[in-house]
Amino acid sequence: MNVFSIKDLEQLSGIKAHTIRIWEIRYNFLKPNRTNTNIRYYSNEELKIILNTSLLIRYGYKVSQIDKMNSDEINLKLLALSNSEAQKERTINELIQFMIDLEINAFEKTLDKYISTKGIDKTIIEIVFPFLEKVGLLWQTNHVNPAQEHLVTNIIRQKLIVGIEKVALFNYKGKTVLMFLPEGEYHELCLLYMYYLLKQKGYTILYLGANSPIKDVLYLFDTKKPAIIYSHLTAISNNFKLEKFFSHFNGKLLNSELVLSGQLIQDYKSALPVNIILKKSLAEVVAYFY
User: Given this structure, which CATH class describes domain 1-81?
Assistant: First the structure.
């Protein structure tokens, strides 16, 4: 069983910690355990309750009303929310709960249902990326097991690959894009999503994927001369340095551009070498290619 701090609940639900403490005093729906030193900690069940409570409150319910509902009544109220944003958040909360409880079949079924109604594009933007942001919060506080993350990200990865395979080649733009993640970088979902979008737009893709040795990248670059090299940097080993990474492309980007996005470039302030472009968000990356 996972255990969560009150700060985890605050980050995941948007409900302030002091509000959660007040609810515990006034109402009965939250029952945290305590350590020997009297520090609160919460189970999977409490996390589900706070996520559902937060969602219902945002769409008009009072906490005093929610306190009187049993779990079946709460689920019915959640299903009855017709607002599209509420439906998205409900789906994201369900995916978090299924991941934590290792209910992998339910996780995949929920994802497939959204894909069947909205398509893979909207599912990735509306559901998967917000879900991964919340998983990232749990990851940072060591309250998600790597096995839990790997199971669900591999399911998402499979959906993206199926989507890529279904894209017909058309509207050829005459540009080739080399896509890779450096050695030590395994967070491939954003790269796969961009592969999907660019294939839709008719780009020719050279996809090396995750954990690619720089010598292989440079060999393919020298051989095929792609117009654009793209990589997304999320979490690599501590000895990774952007300046050293840039140096591998010194003198090579005469007619090409190296485009980088991801968490590791967010705080980069130094002057950039010629033809190296940093994009702070996925939206900026999409705008660059489109």
Answer: mainly alpha
